[in-house]
């Protein structure tokens, strides 16, 4: 039986999820969803054409470490991803558990190091038929059937909000300064603002300013999303 306490915590937000009015509001609700079900990460995907081989081509919103997102593209892990293949051929939610998989690979190691070794993917679609998925990851025990239903309900509503705001559309590019692009490139390598400042010989305040301005130009709620959009638009990489 579904945990009544968890369901009660989720119920108020379910009624208003589809009417969320900004990417920031959607990100906040995704953070709440992670907290409710004891995950640490989320990713919202739109399943684009198979010719789009990079993860950044499909990512709409995420709080994954920027370094992991960049590495995923650099290593071209999407090409042979069993997750993408399953999402394309099925509409049934599924879980993953790297810790229960005996075969060690670079991608498994990367996700384990990021604290995202277990989780669930929820295939979703909007009223226009746009297909996508929302993935939740962390180190909690494997997701049980009792959690799948409320997670599925929340993810379906959130994805509809994503599409209502046209966040599913691929970016057409943005005019970023050389410094903004430089800071984004280092952010994609997993560097903090303080580390980027030391590398470029700038103050941490200045680097933060460049990253925030880049995020604004790319209509992003944070620097991680800005990195994703910059990668997808081929502005960095």
Explain this structure.
With 237 residues, the protein is an alpha+beta fold. The protein has 2 domains: 4-164, Transcription factor LuxR-like, autoinducer-binding domain (Beta-Lactamase, 2-Layer Sandwich); 178-232, Winged helix-like DNA-binding domain superfamily/Winged helix DNA-binding domain (Arc Repressor Mutant, subunit A, Orthogonal Bundle), CATH 1.10.10.10. The protein contains 10 helices and 5 strands, in the order H-H-E-E-H-H-E-H-E-E-H-H-H-H-H. The protein has helices spanning 4-14, 23-36, 66-74, 82-89, 106-113, 145-164, 178-188, 193-200, 204-217, 223-232; strands at 41-46, 59-62, 94-97, 118-125, 131-138. The protein has a 5-stranded antiparallel β-sheet. The longest helix is centred in the middle third of the chain and has 20 residues, at 145-164. 39% of the residues are buried.
Secondary-structure blueprint of this entry?
Layout: H1 4-14, H2 23-36, E1 41-46, E2 59-62, H3 66-74, H4 82-89, E3 94-97, H5 106-113, E4 118-125, E5 131-138, H6 145-164, H7 178-188, H8 193-200, H9 204-217, H10 223-232
Antiparallel strand pairs: 1-2, 1-5, 3-4, 4-5
Helices and strands, in N-to-C order?
HHEEHHEHEEHHHHH
What structural class do the secondary elements suggest?
A: alpha+beta
Number of helical elements: 10
| Proper CATH architecture of the largest domain | 2-Layer Sandwich
CATH level 3 topology of the largest domain: Beta-Lactamase
Poorly predicted sequence stretches spanning 5 or more consecutive residues? none
Strand content: 5-15%
Give the overall average pLDDT.
87
User: How many distinct domains?
Assistant: 2
Shape: globular
In spatial order, strands of the major sheet run: 2-1-5-4-3
What is the distance, rounded to the nearest whole angstrom, between the alpha carbons of the first and last residues?
47 Å
Q: From the alpha carbons, calculate the radius of gyration and give it in angstroms.
A: 18 Å
Q: Report helical residue fraction.
A: 40-55%
CATH class of the largest domain: Alpha Beta
The biggest sheet amounts to: 5 strands, antiparallel
Number of strands: 5
CATH superfamily of the largest domain, please? Transcription factor LuxR-like, autoinducer-binding domain
